[in-house]
Amino acid sequence: MAFAGKWETENQEGYDAFCKLLGIPDDVIEKGRDYKMVTEVTQDGDNFSWTQMYPTNAKVTNKFIIDKECDMETIGGKKFKATVHMEEGKLSVAFPNYHHTSEISGGKLVETSKAGSVVLKRTSKKI
Prior knowledge:
The chain has 127 residues and is mostly beta strands. The chain is 11% helix and 57% strand.
């Protein structure tokens, strides 16, 4: 249940390079650079609901069960099937263009997205 709660971005590293690699327009990158994204997670055992609120007033909610294939959606609206795994307390999932992990470290939510050699690391505090 460590992931449950509401989290707000404290800092992020590699944001511009990662967004450019995914083809996100420059004006959207600019708006999101200093935005304090809010992530809300509910967890009931292996069942999760993961909602992220973005700077353009967009909101994406993905519901999943650990180790079971589910329907997911990217912020761009692309729907895909994926299986979220949990290994040593870390959530791990392959999105269409990158691999994403989430973990609780030092009381913070740390999310890492990797696309080739480009890495976006976002750290959020509980609010």
